[in-house]
Each structure stands twice: as C-alpha cells, then as structure tokens.
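Customer escalation, tier 2.

The customer says the design service returned an amino acid string that "doesn't look like it belongs to this structure." They asked us to rerun it and document both sides in this ticket. The original structure tokens are below, unchanged.
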C-alpha cells in the first residue's frame, strides 16, 4: 500500500485543485473493511501520493487524501473525532483513518416511527441485546369540526403513549450498557426520535448521539439487525481532474 504522510492543516492551504471547471466531484459510500484497499487503488490510479498527501482538520471529523495528479478524496470520519497520532512509530497510514474505521465499538441504536420502536446494543456488527415493540397510533383523518378535534386529541394521546413505551424500551435496553457505549445512533421519524430522547431517563444518551440519522421503515428486528451496515459505512467525496485518464479509469467502490 502506498504510504501517506500526515500533516497538520494550514490556514487557507489546499494542496489540491480548486473545485469548479476541469474537475468532477461525486460521493461514494463503502464498507469499513474496503477502505484501505480503496485508498490504495485511488493513489495508484492517480500517480501516487502528493508531497503533502494527508490533511486532517483540527476537529478530526474528516481526512483528505491527495494524489500526485491533483485528485483528492475527503473521507468523513465515522464516530468522530479521529484521534491525533502521538508518538506512533512508524506513523499510521492515512493518519490512522483505516484503524479508526475498522475498530469494533459498542454502539446503542434507537429507532422510532409513529407507533413502532426498536432499541439495541451492538458490539461491532453483533447485536448483543435488543427489544422491539409497537403501539397503535391512528392515522390522520380528513373529517372536520368537533369530530376532527376529538380524533386529533385521541391521536395525540396515542402518540404520547407510544413515545413513552419507546423511551421505556430504550432505558431498559441501552442504559445498562452506558459505560461501554462509544456512540448512540438513532433513526426513523425525526420528530418521534426527538420526543423519545426528551425522556429524562435518556439524558445520558443525548450527548452520545452521532450521525448519520438512519432513514428506516417500520423498525422490526430485521431492520434493527441491518443497521451496522449503515452506521459503520464510510462516506467519501471524490474530486478528480477531468480528462481522458479520469474518464478511462473512474474510481469505484472496491
């Protein structure tokens, strides 16, 4: 694998080409196990690493890898921040990015949609414990007048009960593992998730919530089990100089 040097960001410094004419940019998503091979292939296709090949901002939320021909890829760091390398000899490739994204973590997951909910704790991709459930919340009605108002009050009551049940499950399933959690990932209806997290018992989880917010269907057990593929995924923004070489050998997810 081509080696890549690590550098601290310099104010206003961008060793790659400016975005705009003569450059193509696209976004990709790959699994963490593929990142090392993908980055090696990216550098090989673009003439090797640039002199200043890796840049990490002070907040550790991304890593940008620069190739010799001006191509670059910005990698959003999952479970940020990326810890700075201190005394690592030899320096880890890509500022330790690959080691960071492939590390197994204990992650709590809370999924909520109107009337349905799921909570679980994962060790890496393995679901350690979980609970799913549902509560009836009636759909909206087109009726008007007093009938509509009564229906709206009943629906609001059902929604409150459903959110309370979801909070109960999250408290029973996720909170006992609080000391082990590296992060909490949430998904489903944003308003519903927000209502559930307002439960005072879940206050310790709020500061652990990290992106991305997962857009999921009705949160059944199978949906919960599938979430690591998404919350562990690595998101890339690839920028390449336009030209025959770029057109002939486009970078693809490995």
């Amino acid at each position: 694998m081509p080696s890549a040097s690590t550098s601290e960001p310099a104010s206003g410094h961008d060793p790659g080409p400016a975005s705009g004419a003569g450059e193509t940019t696209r976004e990709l998503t790959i699994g963490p196990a593929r990142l090392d091979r993908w980055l090696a292939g990216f550098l090989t296709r673009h003439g090797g690493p640039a002199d200043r090949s890796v840049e990490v901002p002070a907040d550790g939320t991304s890593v940008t890898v620069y190739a010799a021909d001006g191509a670059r890829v910005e990698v959003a760091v999952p479970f940020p921040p990326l810890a700075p390398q201190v005394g690592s000899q030899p320096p880890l490739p890509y500022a330790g990015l690959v080691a960071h994204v492939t590390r197994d973590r204990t992650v709590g997951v809370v999924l909520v949609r109107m009337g349905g909910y799921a909570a679980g704790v994962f060790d890496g991709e393995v679901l350690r414990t979980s609970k799913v459930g549902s509560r009836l919340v009636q759909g909206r009605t087109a009726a008007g007048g007093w009938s509509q108002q009564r229906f709206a009050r009943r629906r609001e009551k059902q929604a409150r009960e459903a959110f309370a049940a979801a909070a109960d499950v999250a408290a029973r399933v996720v909170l006992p593992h609080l000391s082990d959690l590296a992060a909490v990932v949430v998904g489903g209806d944003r308003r519903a998730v927000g209502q559930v997290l307002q439960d005072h018992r879940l206050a310790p989880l709020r500061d652990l919530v990290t992106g991305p917010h997962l857009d999921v269907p009705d949160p059944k057990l199978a949906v919960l089990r599938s979430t690591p593929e998404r919350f562990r995924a690595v998101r890339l923004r690839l920028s390449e100089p336009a030209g025959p070489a770029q057109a002939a050998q486009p970078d693809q997810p490995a």
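Tier 2 assessment: The sequence is consistent with the input. Confidence is low (pLDDT under 50) at residues 1-19. The chain is about 30% helix and 25% strand. Sent an explanation to the customer and offered a walkthrough call.
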